Amino acid sequence: MTNLAPLWSPLQIGSTQLPSRVALAPMTRISATEDGLVTEKMVSYYEAFARGGFALLITEGIYPDTAYSQGYLYQPGLATDEQARSWATVVDAVHAAGSTIFAQLMHAGSQAQGSRYADSTIGPSAVAPRGEQLGFYRGEGPYRVPAEITREQMEEVRQGFVASALRARESGFDGVEIHGANGYLLDQFLTDYLNLRTDEYGGSPQNRVRFTAEIARAVRDAVGPEMAVGIRISQSKVSDHDHRWAGGAEEAEVIFSALAATGVDFIHTTEYKAYAPAFGDKGPSLAALAKRHSGLPVIANGHLDDPETAVSMLADGAADVVALGKAALGNRDWPDRVRRGLPLDEIDARLFAPVADVKDWELELLS
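The chain above was modelled as a monomer; its predicted structure follows.
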Protein backbone atom coordinates (compact mmCIF):
# COMPACT_ATOMS: atom_id res chain seq x y z
CA MET A 1 0.00 0.00 0.00
CA THR A 2 1.42 3.37 -1.06
CA ASN A 3 1.93 5.89 1.71
CA LEU A 4 -0.62 8.63 1.01
CA ALA A 5 0.45 10.84 3.92
CA PRO A 6 2.01 13.51 1.65
CA LEU A 7 -1.49 14.33 0.36
CA TRP A 8 -2.53 15.47 3.82
CA SER A 9 0.45 17.62 4.82
CA PRO A 10 -0.01 21.41 5.12
CA LEU A 11 1.44 23.94 2.69
CA GLN A 12 1.78 27.71 2.51
CA ILE A 13 1.15 29.37 -0.87
CA GLY A 14 1.78 33.07 -0.54
CA SER A 15 -0.53 34.30 2.19
CA THR A 16 -2.75 31.20 1.99
CA GLN A 17 -2.32 28.27 4.34
CA LEU A 18 -3.58 24.97 2.96
CA PRO A 19 -4.26 22.10 5.38
CA SER A 20 -3.58 19.51 2.65
CA ARG A 21 -2.42 19.13 -0.94
CA VAL A 22 -5.56 18.24 -2.97
CA ALA A 23 -7.16 21.01 -5.05
CA LEU A 24 -10.13 21.28 -7.36
CA ALA A 25 -8.96 22.07 -10.89
CA PRO A 26 -10.75 24.82 -12.81
CA MET A 27 -13.49 23.45 -15.08
CA THR A 28 -15.78 25.44 -17.35
CA ARG A 29 -19.41 24.70 -16.40
CA ILE A 30 -21.30 27.53 -18.23
CA SER A 31 -23.96 27.80 -15.52
CA ALA A 32 -24.00 31.55 -14.84
CA THR A 33 -26.79 33.86 -15.94
CA GLU A 34 -26.65 35.33 -19.43
CA ASP A 35 -25.11 38.50 -18.01
CA GLY A 36 -22.39 36.63 -16.11
CA LEU A 37 -23.85 36.49 -12.60
CA VAL A 38 -23.34 33.53 -10.27
CA THR A 39 -26.38 31.26 -9.82
CA GLU A 40 -27.55 29.18 -6.88
CA LYS A 41 -26.50 26.08 -8.81
CA MET A 42 -22.94 27.37 -8.82
CA VAL A 43 -22.99 28.12 -5.10
CA SER A 44 -24.09 24.55 -4.33
CA TYR A 45 -21.57 23.15 -6.81
CA TYR A 46 -18.53 24.80 -5.22
CA GLU A 47 -19.77 24.31 -1.66
CA ALA A 48 -19.98 20.55 -2.28
CA PHE A 49 -16.27 20.30 -3.11
CA ALA A 50 -15.38 22.29 0.00
CA ARG A 51 -17.51 19.96 2.14
CA GLY A 52 -15.86 16.99 0.42
CA GLY A 53 -12.41 17.85 1.74
CA PHE A 54 -10.72 19.74 -1.11
CA ALA A 55 -8.24 22.10 0.52
CA LEU A 56 -8.28 24.57 -2.38
CA LEU A 57 -10.88 25.28 -5.04
CA ILE A 58 -9.86 27.04 -8.25
CA THR A 59 -12.87 28.41 -10.07
CA GLU A 60 -13.76 27.95 -13.69
CA GLY A 61 -12.33 30.61 -15.98
CA ILE A 62 -13.94 33.98 -15.22
CA TYR A 63 -13.88 36.71 -17.85
CA PRO A 64 -12.24 39.94 -16.62
CA ASP A 65 -13.58 42.68 -18.93
CA THR A 66 -16.55 43.71 -21.07
CA ALA A 67 -14.59 43.99 -24.32
CA TYR A 68 -13.28 40.74 -25.85
CA SER A 69 -12.50 38.50 -22.90
CA GLN A 70 -15.66 36.38 -22.64
CA GLY A 71 -15.19 32.95 -24.19
CA TYR A 72 -18.48 31.12 -23.66
CA LEU A 73 -22.14 31.99 -23.33
CA TYR A 74 -23.32 31.70 -19.70
CA GLN A 75 -19.74 32.04 -18.47
CA PRO A 76 -19.40 33.96 -15.18
CA GLY A 77 -17.57 37.27 -15.06
CA LEU A 78 -15.67 39.51 -12.68
CA ALA A 79 -15.88 42.42 -15.09
CA THR A 80 -18.49 44.39 -13.14
CA ASP A 81 -19.21 45.16 -9.51
CA GLU A 82 -22.53 43.31 -9.76
CA GLN A 83 -20.75 40.16 -10.96
CA ALA A 84 -18.26 40.50 -8.12
CA ARG A 85 -21.05 40.76 -5.54
CA SER A 86 -22.61 37.58 -6.90
CA TRP A 87 -19.32 35.71 -6.42
CA ALA A 88 -19.28 36.65 -2.73
CA THR A 89 -22.02 34.08 -2.14
CA VAL A 90 -19.76 31.31 -3.45
CA VAL A 91 -16.79 32.53 -1.43
CA ASP A 92 -18.82 32.70 1.78
CA ALA A 93 -20.19 29.17 1.29
CA VAL A 94 -16.74 27.74 0.58
CA HIS A 95 -15.21 29.45 3.59
CA ALA A 96 -18.05 28.30 5.83
CA ALA A 97 -17.32 24.73 4.71
CA GLY A 98 -13.68 25.13 5.74
CA SER A 99 -11.93 25.49 2.37
CA THR A 100 -10.15 28.21 0.40
CA ILE A 101 -10.91 29.48 -3.09
CA PHE A 102 -8.96 31.19 -5.87
CA ALA A 103 -10.60 33.00 -8.80
CA GLN A 104 -9.22 32.02 -12.19
CA LEU A 105 -9.14 35.04 -14.51
CA MET A 106 -9.37 34.11 -18.20
CA HIS A 107 -9.26 36.12 -21.41
CA ALA A 108 -10.37 33.86 -24.24
CA GLY A 109 -8.75 35.81 -27.08
CA SER A 110 -9.18 34.12 -30.45
CA GLN A 111 -10.53 30.98 -28.77
CA ALA A 112 -13.75 32.80 -27.84
CA GLN A 113 -16.84 31.09 -29.22
CA GLY A 114 -19.63 32.97 -27.46
CA SER A 115 -19.76 36.52 -26.06
CA ARG A 116 -22.49 38.99 -25.21
CA TYR A 117 -20.08 41.89 -25.67
CA ALA A 118 -18.36 41.30 -29.03
CA ASP A 119 -19.11 39.69 -32.38
CA SER A 120 -15.41 39.37 -33.25
CA THR A 121 -12.26 38.17 -31.52
CA ILE A 122 -8.70 39.39 -30.96
CA GLY A 123 -5.40 37.54 -30.76
CA PRO A 124 -1.67 38.26 -30.97
CA SER A 125 -1.88 37.81 -34.75
CA ALA A 126 -4.59 37.28 -37.36
CA VAL A 127 -4.33 33.48 -37.13
CA ALA A 128 -7.28 31.28 -36.17
CA PRO A 129 -6.85 28.54 -33.56
CA ARG A 130 -6.66 25.03 -34.94
CA GLY A 131 -9.57 22.63 -34.70
CA GLU A 132 -13.26 23.14 -34.09
CA GLN A 133 -15.25 24.99 -31.45
CA LEU A 134 -16.54 22.88 -28.56
CA GLY A 135 -20.11 21.69 -28.95
CA PHE A 136 -20.60 20.99 -25.24
CA TYR A 137 -19.84 24.69 -24.63
CA ARG A 138 -22.39 25.72 -27.28
CA GLY A 139 -19.83 26.23 -30.05
CA GLU A 140 -20.03 25.15 -33.67
CA GLY A 141 -17.67 25.13 -36.64
CA PRO A 142 -14.11 26.41 -36.97
CA TYR A 143 -12.76 29.26 -34.88
CA ARG A 144 -12.87 32.73 -36.37
CA VAL A 145 -9.78 34.54 -37.60
CA PRO A 146 -9.11 37.19 -34.94
CA ALA A 147 -8.06 40.78 -35.44
CA GLU A 148 -4.47 41.40 -34.40
CA ILE A 149 -4.57 42.99 -30.98
CA THR A 150 -3.36 46.60 -30.86
CA ARG A 151 -1.12 48.16 -28.24
CA GLU A 152 -4.12 50.07 -26.89
CA GLN A 153 -6.12 46.85 -26.59
CA MET A 154 -3.20 45.13 -24.87
CA GLU A 155 -3.27 47.87 -22.26
CA GLU A 156 -7.03 47.41 -21.88
CA VAL A 157 -6.48 43.68 -21.35
CA ARG A 158 -3.86 44.40 -18.71
CA GLN A 159 -6.18 46.83 -16.93
CA GLY A 160 -9.00 44.28 -17.11
CA PHE A 161 -6.94 41.61 -15.35
CA VAL A 162 -5.94 44.09 -12.63
CA ALA A 163 -9.47 45.42 -12.11
CA SER A 164 -10.99 41.93 -11.94
CA ALA A 165 -8.30 40.79 -9.50
CA LEU A 166 -9.19 43.72 -7.25
CA ARG A 167 -12.86 42.78 -7.51
CA ALA A 168 -11.94 39.23 -6.56
CA ARG A 169 -10.20 40.57 -3.47
CA GLU A 170 -13.27 42.63 -2.55
CA SER A 171 -15.44 39.50 -3.01
CA GLY A 172 -13.33 37.68 -0.42
CA PHE A 173 -11.37 35.30 -2.66
CA ASP A 174 -8.16 34.02 -1.08
CA GLY A 175 -6.21 34.34 -4.32
CA VAL A 176 -6.32 34.67 -8.08
CA GLU A 177 -4.97 32.45 -10.82
CA ILE A 178 -4.15 34.07 -14.16
CA HIS A 179 -5.09 31.73 -17.01
CA GLY A 180 -2.06 31.45 -19.27
CA ALA A 181 -2.84 27.96 -20.56
CA ASN A 182 -5.06 25.86 -22.82
CA GLY A 183 -4.99 28.11 -25.88
CA TYR A 184 -6.56 31.23 -24.38
CA LEU A 185 -5.19 34.72 -25.04
CA LEU A 186 -2.03 34.66 -22.92
CA ASP A 187 -1.18 31.18 -24.16
CA GLN A 188 -1.72 32.44 -27.70
CA PHE A 189 1.12 34.90 -27.13
CA LEU A 190 3.30 31.99 -25.97
CA THR A 191 2.44 29.88 -29.03
CA ASP A 192 4.78 30.20 -31.99
CA TYR A 193 2.24 29.49 -34.73
CA LEU A 194 -0.41 31.83 -33.27
CA ASN A 195 2.00 34.67 -32.49
CA LEU A 196 3.60 36.01 -35.68
CA ARG A 197 4.33 39.46 -34.26
CA THR A 198 7.55 41.22 -35.18
CA ASP A 199 7.61 43.58 -32.19
CA GLU A 200 8.95 42.88 -28.69
CA TYR A 201 6.00 40.56 -28.02
CA GLY A 202 6.79 38.09 -30.80
CA GLY A 203 9.61 35.92 -32.06
CA SER A 204 11.81 34.53 -29.29
CA PRO A 205 10.43 32.78 -26.19
CA GLN A 206 11.67 35.76 -24.17
CA ASN A 207 9.44 38.03 -26.26
CA ARG A 208 6.43 35.72 -26.41
CA VAL A 209 6.27 35.38 -22.61
CA ARG A 210 6.59 39.14 -22.11
CA PHE A 211 2.88 40.05 -22.17
CA THR A 212 1.95 37.26 -19.77
CA ALA A 213 4.72 38.30 -17.40
CA GLU A 214 3.66 41.95 -17.54
CA ILE A 215 0.11 41.03 -16.58
CA ALA A 216 1.27 38.74 -13.79
CA ARG A 217 3.45 41.50 -12.37
CA ALA A 218 0.68 44.08 -12.64
CA VAL A 219 -1.80 41.84 -10.81
CA ARG A 220 0.77 40.91 -8.18
CA ASP A 221 1.51 44.58 -7.48
CA ALA A 222 -2.16 45.59 -7.45
CA VAL A 223 -3.63 43.11 -4.97
CA GLY A 224 -0.86 43.26 -2.40
CA PRO A 225 0.81 40.54 -0.33
CA GLU A 226 -2.36 39.51 1.51
CA MET A 227 -3.68 37.75 -1.58
CA ALA A 228 -2.09 34.78 -3.34
CA VAL A 229 -1.37 35.20 -7.05
CA GLY A 230 -0.40 32.49 -9.52
CA ILE A 231 -0.55 31.52 -13.16
CA ARG A 232 -1.66 28.44 -15.08
CA ILE A 233 0.56 27.19 -17.93
CA SER A 234 0.26 24.35 -20.42
CA GLN A 235 1.62 23.27 -23.77
CA SER A 236 -1.57 21.61 -25.06
CA LYS A 237 -4.67 23.58 -25.96
CA VAL A 238 -8.42 23.12 -26.08
CA SER A 239 -8.16 22.82 -29.86
CA ASP A 240 -4.63 21.43 -30.19
CA HIS A 241 -3.86 18.68 -27.69
CA ASP A 242 -0.56 17.71 -29.29
CA HIS A 243 1.20 21.08 -29.23
CA ARG A 244 4.67 21.17 -27.68
CA TRP A 245 7.04 24.09 -27.25
CA ALA A 246 9.48 23.98 -30.15
CA GLY A 247 12.37 25.05 -27.91
CA GLY A 248 11.86 22.12 -25.56
CA ALA A 249 13.36 22.24 -22.08
CA GLU A 250 15.30 25.42 -22.89
CA GLU A 251 12.09 27.23 -23.76
CA ALA A 252 10.52 25.93 -20.54
CA GLU A 253 13.39 27.44 -18.58
CA VAL A 254 12.84 30.83 -20.21
CA ILE A 255 9.08 30.79 -19.58
CA PHE A 256 9.12 29.60 -15.98
CA SER A 257 12.06 31.80 -14.99
CA ALA A 258 10.35 34.87 -16.46
CA LEU A 259 7.10 34.13 -14.66
CA ALA A 260 8.81 33.52 -11.34
CA ALA A 261 10.53 36.89 -11.64
CA THR A 262 7.15 38.65 -11.59
CA GLY A 263 6.65 37.88 -7.89
CA VAL A 264 3.77 35.41 -8.26
CA ASP A 265 3.28 32.84 -5.51
CA PHE A 266 2.68 29.66 -7.52
CA ILE A 267 2.61 28.07 -10.96
CA HIS A 268 -0.12 25.67 -12.03
CA THR A 269 0.79 23.32 -14.88
CA THR A 270 -1.83 21.33 -16.77
CA GLU A 271 -1.10 18.60 -19.30
CA TYR A 272 -2.97 15.52 -20.52
CA LYS A 273 -0.86 13.46 -18.11
CA ALA A 274 0.80 15.59 -15.46
CA TYR A 275 3.44 12.96 -14.74
CA ALA A 276 4.47 12.32 -18.38
CA PRO A 277 7.71 13.69 -19.87
CA ALA A 278 7.18 17.19 -21.20
CA PHE A 279 9.30 16.56 -24.28
CA GLY A 280 9.82 13.24 -26.01
CA ASP A 281 9.69 9.83 -24.37
CA LYS A 282 11.79 10.59 -21.31
CA GLY A 283 12.83 13.42 -19.05
CA PRO A 284 11.05 15.60 -16.50
CA SER A 285 7.37 16.52 -16.61
CA LEU A 286 6.24 20.08 -17.24
CA ALA A 287 5.42 20.38 -13.53
CA ALA A 288 8.96 19.28 -12.61
CA LEU A 289 10.43 21.82 -15.03
CA ALA A 290 8.25 24.53 -13.53
CA LYS A 291 9.47 23.57 -10.07
CA ARG A 292 13.09 23.49 -11.17
CA HIS A 293 13.12 26.85 -12.93
CA SER A 294 10.74 28.86 -10.76
CA GLY A 295 11.50 27.65 -7.26
CA LEU A 296 7.81 28.26 -6.48
CA PRO A 297 5.09 25.94 -5.22
CA VAL A 298 3.69 24.06 -8.22
CA ILE A 299 0.16 22.77 -8.69
CA ALA A 300 -0.04 19.86 -11.16
CA ASN A 301 -3.14 18.82 -13.09
CA GLY A 302 -3.76 16.02 -15.57
CA HIS A 303 -4.94 12.43 -15.07
CA LEU A 304 -4.06 12.29 -11.39
CA ASP A 305 -7.35 10.54 -10.60
CA ASP A 306 -5.75 7.58 -8.83
CA PRO A 307 -4.47 8.42 -5.32
CA GLU A 308 -1.20 6.55 -5.86
CA THR A 309 -0.50 8.48 -9.06
CA ALA A 310 -1.40 11.74 -7.38
CA VAL A 311 0.85 11.19 -4.39
CA SER A 312 3.76 10.19 -6.66
CA MET A 313 3.92 13.79 -7.96
CA LEU A 314 4.40 15.01 -4.40
CA ALA A 315 6.78 12.26 -3.35
CA ASP A 316 9.00 12.86 -6.39
CA GLY A 317 9.17 16.59 -5.69
CA ALA A 318 7.66 17.39 -9.10
CA ALA A 319 4.72 19.24 -7.58
CA ASP A 320 3.44 20.55 -4.26
CA VAL A 321 -0.32 20.29 -4.88
CA VAL A 322 -2.37 17.98 -7.12
CA ALA A 323 -5.45 19.43 -8.84
CA LEU A 324 -8.25 17.10 -9.88
CA GLY A 325 -10.74 17.78 -12.67
CA LYS A 326 -12.89 14.94 -14.00
CA ALA A 327 -12.04 12.78 -10.98
CA ALA A 328 -13.49 15.52 -8.79
CA LEU A 329 -16.64 15.74 -10.90
CA GLY A 330 -17.13 12.02 -10.32
CA ASN A 331 -16.26 12.28 -6.61
CA ARG A 332 -17.00 15.64 -4.96
CA ASP A 333 -15.64 14.11 -1.77
CA TRP A 334 -12.50 12.57 -3.33
CA PRO A 335 -10.23 13.68 -0.45
CA ASP A 336 -12.58 12.38 2.23
CA ARG A 337 -13.08 9.09 0.41
CA VAL A 338 -9.35 8.54 -0.05
CA ARG A 339 -8.63 9.36 3.59
CA ARG A 340 -11.20 6.78 4.68
CA GLY A 341 -10.14 4.14 2.17
CA LEU A 342 -13.48 4.17 0.35
CA PRO A 343 -13.85 3.31 -3.36
CA LEU A 344 -14.07 6.04 -5.99
CA ASP A 345 -16.88 6.39 -8.53
CA GLU A 346 -16.43 6.68 -12.28
CA ILE A 347 -17.51 9.96 -13.86
CA ASP A 348 -20.98 9.96 -15.40
CA ALA A 349 -20.78 10.98 -19.09
CA ARG A 350 -24.14 12.73 -18.76
CA LEU A 351 -22.32 15.56 -16.98
CA PHE A 352 -21.18 16.73 -20.43
CA ALA A 353 -24.40 16.20 -22.37
CA PRO A 354 -25.90 18.03 -24.08
CA VAL A 355 -23.72 20.79 -22.62
CA ALA A 356 -21.13 20.79 -19.83
CA ASP A 357 -23.11 22.69 -17.22
CA VAL A 358 -24.19 22.01 -13.64
CA LYS A 359 -27.18 19.67 -13.80
CA ASP A 360 -30.13 19.77 -11.40
CA TRP A 361 -29.93 16.02 -10.80
CA GLU A 362 -26.22 16.42 -10.13
CA LEU A 363 -26.98 18.80 -7.26
CA GLU A 364 -29.52 16.34 -5.85
CA LEU A 365 -26.77 13.75 -5.67
CA LEU A 366 -24.61 16.19 -3.75
CA SER A 367 -27.18 17.07 -1.12
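The chain has a mean pLDDT of 97.
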